[in-house]
Write a structure and sequence with these properties.
By secondary structure, this protein is an alpha+beta fold. The protein contains 9 helices and 15 strands. The protein has a 7-stranded mixed sheet, sandwiched between helices. It has a 5-stranded antiparallel sheet with strand order 14-13-12-11-15, with no helix packed on it.
Length: 328
């Protein structure tokens, strides 16, 4: 770890107080000149560091720049050694994850996180707006067990949705809701989308890796949302919460959902956050539009709908819309 990173790590871990140059020098075993140069370098990178005449330093409360140290600071102990790669700007973290999987050996539960995506991707080939400094755009790389069933991929998305909803609910006064299968809503507007992608081996029919992409509008201004997006998209806008902190809390929750909680428990929580159960919905299959009521989510994560004649159908994929004046 270089001098600059050592200083940043110390400032992140003590961001609630000023640290003297003497304390930094003693704890890091570096000179005051090295500290001054390191602080200047961090400022040049965009970190807002306050200082006073007696050589004391502190990360400004408004500083919300993404960093691996900022994320690790909020991670549970068993996750503090995961591989975290931070990008200032990238086309897509999911796309980068695929590139890395084919070019080098990647650790399980590796995190790729970006300050900006120039070609953020959503489901069904859609773009995901990812402007700089306003959101949390990240991908988690997983290597599932050899007996992983392809039909369980939807449950991965469901676990990710529960993780996001739980992280928001536990760390803010907000009340998030999940729109089947992969969107998080707040006050009638979408603030988060999830895209899970699997890489399978054709011969063995085994899943080799899974990339879970999550994009959260953290403090995205409404002016970014043009046209129809202005009606449908929103932002978390939580006070006293940093992007590093929320990213870490989502990771903590997702790890727990993926490795420790039962599918039954996850689905129970998912239903509790559901935005669609009990509501009239519309969906299209084979170019035919249907109307039904969303009545349940089964153990595979499929949406169970009931038609007016009492017949039921399970939806495993596709888009649904909630009838009525839904968007606020």
């Amino acid at each position: 770890m270089n001098t600059k990173d050592k200083i940043l790590k110390c400032l992140v871990e003590n961001r609630d107080r000023y640290i003297s140059g003497e304390e930094l020098g003693s704890s890091l075993n570096i000179s005051r000149t090295a500290i001054w140069k390191g602080v200047k370098s961090l400022r040049d990178e965009g970190f807002i560091i306050n200082s006073q005449s007696n050589n004391v330093y502190k990360l400004d409360d408004s500083c919300d720049k993404l960093s691996s140290f900022g994320i690790v600071n909020y991670l549970e102990e068993n996750l503090k050694d995961i591989d975290i790669r931070v990008y200032d700007s990238i086309d897509s973290t999911n796309t980068e994850a695929k590139r890395l999987l084919y070019s080098e050996k990647i650790k399980n539960f590796t995190l790729l996180i970006a300050n900006e995506q120039t070609k953020g991707r959503g489901r069904r080939g859609r773009d995901f707006l990812s402007p700089e400094d306003t959101g949390i755009y990240f991908s988690i790389i997983l290597f599932p067990k050899t007996d992983f069933n392809m039909e369980s991929l939807d449950l991965i998305t469901i676990k990710a949705a529960v993780a996001v909803a739980e992280a928001i609910a536990k760390n803010t006064d907000k009340e998030p809701r999940i729109k089947w299968v992969n969107d998080i809503f707040l006050d009638g507007k979408k603030i988060c989308g999830i895209l899970s992608e699997a890489d399978s081996d054709f011969e063995s029919r085994q899943i080799k890796s899974i990339v879970v992409g999550i994009g959260i509008n953290f403090n995205t201004k409404s002016s970014y949302f043009k046209g129809d997006l202005n009606k449908k998209a929103g932002s978390l806008n939580a006070h006293n919460l940093y992007r590093n902190q929320l990213a870490a809390e989502v990771l903590n929750e997702f790890y727990n959902c993926y490795y420790n909680r039962s599918d039954e428990d996850i689905l129970k929580t998912y239903k509790a956050y559901s935005l669609v159960l009990g509501k009239k919905i519309e969906f299209t299959q084979n170019d035919v539009k249907y109307e039904a009521t969303a009545v349940d989510i089964n153990d595979r994560g499929n949406l169970v709908v009931e038609f007016s004649d009492g017949n039921r159908k399970e939806l495993s994929s596709g888009e649904i819309s909630i009838k009525g004046d839904f968007y606020l």
